Amino acid sequence: MEKTVNQKAWFLVLPVLVLVAFSAIIPLMTVVNYSVQDSFGQNNFFWAGLVWFEDLLHSPRMWNALGRQVVFSSIILAIEVPLGIFIALNMPKKGLWATVCLVLMSLPLLIPWNVVGTIWQVFARVDIGLLGYTLDSLGVDYNYTQGFYAAWTTLIVMDVWHWTSLVALLAYAGLQSIPDAYYQAARIDQASRWKIFRYIELPKMSGVLTIAILLRFMDSFKIYTEPFVVTGGGPGNATTFLSIDLVKMALGQFDLGNAAAFSIIYFLVILAVSWVFYTVMTNLDKKDGV
Question: What backbone phi and psi angles, to 5 degrees, belong to 156?
Protein backbone atom coordinates (compact mmCIF):
# COMPACT_ATOMS: atom_id res chain seq x y z
CA MET A 1 0.00 0.00 0.00
CA GLU A 2 1.48 3.30 -1.09
CA LYS A 3 1.79 6.06 1.46
CA THR A 4 -0.11 9.24 0.61
CA VAL A 5 2.02 12.38 0.82
CA ASN A 6 0.26 15.53 1.95
CA GLN A 7 1.45 18.49 -0.14
CA LYS A 8 -0.63 21.11 1.68
CA ALA A 9 2.35 22.12 3.80
CA TRP A 10 3.80 23.87 0.74
CA PHE A 11 1.13 26.54 1.12
CA LEU A 12 2.73 27.49 4.44
CA VAL A 13 6.13 27.84 2.77
CA LEU A 14 4.80 29.81 -0.21
CA PRO A 15 4.76 33.24 1.54
CA VAL A 16 8.42 32.75 2.51
CA LEU A 17 9.37 31.82 -1.06
CA VAL A 18 7.58 34.90 -2.39
CA LEU A 19 9.32 37.13 0.15
CA VAL A 20 12.74 35.66 -0.70
CA ALA A 21 12.03 36.14 -4.41
CA PHE A 22 11.31 39.85 -3.94
CA SER A 23 14.08 40.53 -1.43
CA ALA A 24 16.92 38.44 -2.86
CA ILE A 25 16.37 36.71 -6.20
CA ILE A 26 14.94 39.65 -8.16
CA PRO A 27 17.68 42.11 -7.02
CA LEU A 28 20.30 39.45 -7.79
CA MET A 29 18.93 39.02 -11.30
CA THR A 30 19.06 42.81 -11.74
CA VAL A 31 22.73 42.82 -10.75
CA VAL A 32 23.43 39.95 -13.15
CA ASN A 33 21.70 41.92 -15.92
CA TYR A 34 23.85 45.01 -15.28
CA SER A 35 27.03 42.91 -15.15
CA VAL A 36 26.74 41.84 -18.79
CA GLN A 37 25.62 45.18 -20.23
CA ASP A 38 26.95 48.67 -20.74
CA SER A 39 25.14 52.00 -20.87
CA PHE A 40 25.72 55.41 -22.40
CA GLY A 41 23.06 56.99 -20.21
CA GLN A 42 19.32 57.60 -20.58
CA ASN A 43 18.69 53.89 -19.87
CA ASN A 44 20.15 52.83 -23.22
CA PHE A 45 21.86 49.49 -22.61
CA PHE A 46 23.69 47.17 -24.97
CA TRP A 47 25.27 43.74 -24.57
CA ALA A 48 28.83 43.75 -23.22
CA GLY A 49 29.29 40.08 -22.36
CA LEU A 50 31.93 39.20 -19.79
CA VAL A 51 34.12 42.24 -20.42
CA TRP A 52 33.52 43.68 -16.93
CA PHE A 53 34.54 40.41 -15.28
CA GLU A 54 37.71 40.26 -17.39
CA ASP A 55 38.60 43.83 -16.47
CA LEU A 56 38.14 43.15 -12.75
CA LEU A 57 40.14 39.93 -12.77
CA HIS A 58 43.04 41.89 -14.26
CA SER A 59 42.54 44.88 -11.98
CA PRO A 60 45.12 45.44 -9.18
CA ARG A 61 42.51 47.55 -7.42
CA MET A 62 40.20 44.59 -6.78
CA TRP A 63 43.03 42.23 -5.81
CA ASN A 64 44.45 44.76 -3.36
CA ALA A 65 41.05 45.24 -1.75
CA LEU A 66 40.58 41.46 -1.62
CA GLY A 67 43.98 41.08 0.05
CA ARG A 68 43.10 43.65 2.71
CA GLN A 69 39.77 41.91 3.27
CA VAL A 70 41.35 38.47 3.68
CA VAL A 71 43.92 39.81 6.15
CA PHE A 72 41.25 41.58 8.19
CA SER A 73 38.94 38.53 8.36
CA SER A 74 41.86 36.24 9.23
CA ILE A 75 42.94 38.48 12.12
CA ILE A 76 39.36 38.77 13.37
CA LEU A 77 38.83 35.01 13.39
CA ALA A 78 42.23 34.36 14.99
CA ILE A 79 41.37 36.70 17.87
CA GLU A 80 37.63 36.38 18.41
CA VAL A 81 37.24 32.58 18.29
CA PRO A 82 39.89 31.71 20.94
CA LEU A 83 38.89 34.74 23.04
CA GLY A 84 35.20 33.83 22.87
CA ILE A 85 35.95 30.24 23.92
CA PHE A 86 38.12 31.48 26.81
CA ILE A 87 35.37 33.81 28.05
CA ALA A 88 32.73 31.06 27.78
CA LEU A 89 34.90 28.64 29.78
CA ASN A 90 35.26 31.17 32.59
CA MET A 91 31.64 32.32 32.78
CA PRO A 92 29.52 31.07 35.71
CA LYS A 93 27.45 28.03 34.78
CA LYS A 94 24.37 28.89 36.89
CA GLY A 95 23.01 31.36 39.38
CA LEU A 96 22.61 35.13 39.46
CA TRP A 97 26.10 35.86 38.16
CA ALA A 98 25.48 33.65 35.14
CA THR A 99 22.44 35.75 34.26
CA VAL A 100 24.36 38.99 34.80
CA CYS A 101 27.21 37.79 32.57
CA LEU A 102 24.83 36.73 29.81
CA VAL A 103 23.13 40.14 29.84
CA LEU A 104 26.44 42.00 29.80
CA MET A 105 27.77 39.84 26.98
CA SER A 106 24.62 40.50 24.94
CA LEU A 107 24.77 44.30 25.21
CA PRO A 108 27.38 44.93 22.46
CA LEU A 109 25.35 42.82 20.04
CA LEU A 110 22.33 45.09 20.50
CA ILE A 111 24.16 48.21 19.29
CA PRO A 112 23.58 49.04 15.58
CA TRP A 113 26.62 48.97 13.30
CA ASN A 114 26.57 52.67 12.50
CA VAL A 115 26.35 53.54 16.20
CA VAL A 116 29.35 51.27 16.91
CA GLY A 117 31.33 53.13 14.26
CA THR A 118 30.32 56.51 15.67
CA ILE A 119 31.20 55.46 19.24
CA TRP A 120 34.70 54.37 18.24
CA GLN A 121 35.20 57.33 15.93
CA VAL A 122 34.70 59.67 18.90
CA PHE A 123 36.38 57.35 21.43
CA ALA A 124 39.60 57.13 19.40
CA ARG A 125 39.95 60.82 18.53
CA VAL A 126 43.08 62.44 19.88
CA ASP A 127 41.42 65.76 20.76
CA ILE A 128 38.22 64.65 22.54
CA GLY A 129 38.24 60.84 22.66
CA LEU A 130 39.21 59.08 25.88
CA LEU A 131 41.32 56.44 24.12
CA GLY A 132 43.07 58.78 21.70
CA TYR A 133 43.70 61.48 24.32
CA THR A 134 45.06 58.95 26.84
CA LEU A 135 47.44 57.36 24.34
CA ASP A 136 48.61 60.79 23.19
CA SER A 137 49.22 61.82 26.81
CA LEU A 138 51.34 58.71 27.31
CA GLY A 139 53.48 59.67 24.33
CA VAL A 140 52.07 57.05 21.97
CA ASP A 141 51.95 58.22 18.35
CA TYR A 142 48.32 57.31 17.67
CA ASN A 143 46.12 58.87 15.00
CA TYR A 144 43.75 56.54 13.16
CA THR A 145 43.04 59.14 10.47
CA GLN A 146 46.70 59.38 9.43
CA GLY A 147 48.50 56.24 10.59
CA PHE A 148 48.19 52.90 8.81
CA TYR A 149 48.73 50.74 11.89
CA ALA A 150 46.59 52.98 14.09
CA ALA A 151 43.67 52.70 11.66
CA TRP A 152 43.94 48.92 11.43
CA THR A 153 44.35 48.51 15.19
CA THR A 154 41.29 50.67 15.84
CA LEU A 155 39.10 48.68 13.45
CA ILE A 156 40.31 45.32 14.80
CA VAL A 157 39.81 46.30 18.45
CA MET A 158 36.39 47.75 17.58
CA ASP A 159 35.27 44.55 15.86
CA VAL A 160 36.61 42.37 18.67
CA TRP A 161 34.71 44.48 21.21
CA HIS A 162 31.54 44.29 19.17
CA TRP A 163 31.43 40.65 18.09
CA THR A 164 33.43 38.49 20.51
CA SER A 165 30.24 38.26 22.57
CA LEU A 166 28.58 36.30 19.77
CA VAL A 167 31.28 33.62 19.81
CA ALA A 168 31.26 33.55 23.61
CA LEU A 169 27.49 33.11 23.82
CA LEU A 170 27.46 30.33 21.22
CA ALA A 171 30.36 28.55 22.94
CA TYR A 172 28.61 28.98 26.29
CA ALA A 173 25.48 27.36 24.88
CA GLY A 174 27.58 24.43 23.68
CA LEU A 175 29.15 24.04 27.11
CA GLN A 176 25.78 24.12 28.83
CA SER A 177 24.59 21.18 26.70
CA ILE A 178 27.33 18.86 28.06
CA PRO A 179 25.87 16.38 30.62
CA ASP A 180 27.43 16.34 34.09
CA ALA A 181 28.18 12.63 33.63
CA TYR A 182 31.07 13.54 31.33
CA TYR A 183 32.69 15.72 33.99
CA GLN A 184 32.10 13.10 36.67
CA ALA A 185 33.83 10.47 34.54
CA ALA A 186 36.72 12.87 33.93
CA ARG A 187 37.11 13.46 37.69
CA ILE A 188 37.14 9.72 38.33
CA ASP A 189 39.86 9.30 35.68
CA GLN A 190 41.71 12.29 37.21
CA ALA A 191 41.84 14.00 33.84
CA SER A 192 43.67 17.33 33.67
CA ARG A 193 41.91 20.58 32.80
CA TRP A 194 43.48 20.52 29.32
CA LYS A 195 42.29 16.96 28.65
CA ILE A 196 38.76 17.86 29.78
CA PHE A 197 38.77 20.75 27.32
CA ARG A 198 40.40 18.76 24.50
CA TYR A 199 38.36 15.55 24.70
CA ILE A 200 35.05 16.67 26.24
CA GLU A 201 34.32 20.37 25.85
CA LEU A 202 35.88 21.14 22.47
CA PRO A 203 34.20 18.21 20.62
CA LYS A 204 30.85 19.10 22.16
CA MET A 205 31.28 22.74 21.08
CA SER A 206 32.30 21.88 17.52
CA GLY A 207 28.79 22.35 16.14
CA VAL A 208 28.23 25.81 17.61
CA LEU A 209 31.81 26.82 16.82
CA THR A 210 31.20 25.94 13.17
CA ILE A 211 28.24 28.30 13.18
CA ALA A 212 30.24 30.98 15.01
CA ILE A 213 33.15 30.79 12.56
CA LEU A 214 30.84 30.90 9.54
CA LEU A 215 28.88 33.86 10.91
CA ARG A 216 31.98 35.80 11.88
CA PHE A 217 33.72 35.10 8.59
CA MET A 218 30.74 36.17 6.49
CA ASP A 219 30.11 39.28 8.57
CA SER A 220 33.77 40.35 8.74
CA PHE A 221 34.27 39.68 5.04
CA LYS A 222 31.42 42.01 4.08
CA ILE A 223 31.99 44.63 6.78
CA TYR A 224 31.17 48.13 5.57
CA THR A 225 29.44 50.47 8.01
CA GLU A 226 31.99 50.49 10.85
CA PRO A 227 35.17 51.14 8.79
CA PHE A 228 33.30 53.61 6.59
CA VAL A 229 32.20 55.64 9.62
CA VAL A 230 35.53 55.44 11.44
CA THR A 231 38.14 55.78 8.68
CA GLY A 232 36.20 56.17 5.43
CA GLY A 233 38.58 53.64 3.88
CA GLY A 234 41.67 55.66 4.78
CA PRO A 235 44.26 56.76 5.40
CA GLY A 236 44.72 56.50 1.65
CA ASN A 237 43.38 53.07 0.78
CA ALA A 238 44.68 51.38 3.94
CA THR A 239 41.23 50.27 5.11
CA THR A 240 39.43 50.25 1.77
CA PHE A 241 37.92 46.78 1.99
CA LEU A 242 35.92 45.12 -0.76
CA SER A 243 32.59 46.55 0.40
CA ILE A 244 33.88 50.12 0.57
CA ASP A 245 35.58 49.81 -2.82
CA LEU A 246 32.34 48.44 -4.28
CA VAL A 247 30.31 51.38 -2.97
CA LYS A 248 32.86 53.84 -4.31
CA MET A 249 32.66 52.17 -7.71
CA ALA A 250 28.86 52.03 -7.81
CA LEU A 251 27.89 55.35 -6.22
CA GLY A 252 31.02 57.46 -6.42
CA GLN A 253 31.95 56.64 -10.01
CA PHE A 254 28.49 55.41 -11.08
CA ASP A 255 30.18 52.60 -12.97
CA LEU A 256 27.23 50.20 -12.88
CA GLY A 257 28.65 47.47 -15.11
CA ASN A 258 31.90 47.13 -13.19
CA ALA A 259 30.09 47.42 -9.86
CA ALA A 260 27.59 44.71 -10.77
CA ALA A 261 30.37 42.34 -11.87
CA PHE A 262 32.26 43.23 -8.68
CA SER A 263 29.16 42.35 -6.62
CA ILE A 264 28.83 38.93 -8.23
CA ILE A 265 32.51 38.11 -7.75
CA TYR A 266 32.25 39.31 -4.16
CA PHE A 267 29.20 37.10 -3.59
CA LEU A 268 30.84 34.05 -5.15
CA VAL A 269 34.00 34.47 -3.05
CA ILE A 270 31.98 34.59 0.18
CA LEU A 271 29.88 31.62 -0.93
CA ALA A 272 32.90 29.53 -1.92
CA VAL A 273 34.94 30.22 1.22
CA SER A 274 31.91 29.63 3.46
CA TRP A 275 31.29 26.30 1.73
CA VAL A 276 34.94 25.30 2.23
CA PHE A 277 34.79 26.28 5.91
CA TYR A 278 31.59 24.33 6.44
CA THR A 279 32.79 21.24 4.55
CA VAL A 280 36.16 21.05 6.30
CA MET A 281 34.77 21.60 9.78
CA THR A 282 31.90 19.15 9.21
CA ASN A 283 34.35 16.47 8.10
CA LEU A 284 36.52 17.11 11.15
CA ASP A 285 33.44 16.82 13.34
CA LYS A 286 32.58 13.46 11.76
CA LYS A 287 36.12 12.16 12.31
CA ASP A 288 36.01 13.19 15.98
CA GLY A 289 32.66 11.46 16.36
CA VAL A 290 33.93 8.16 14.96
Answer: -65, -45
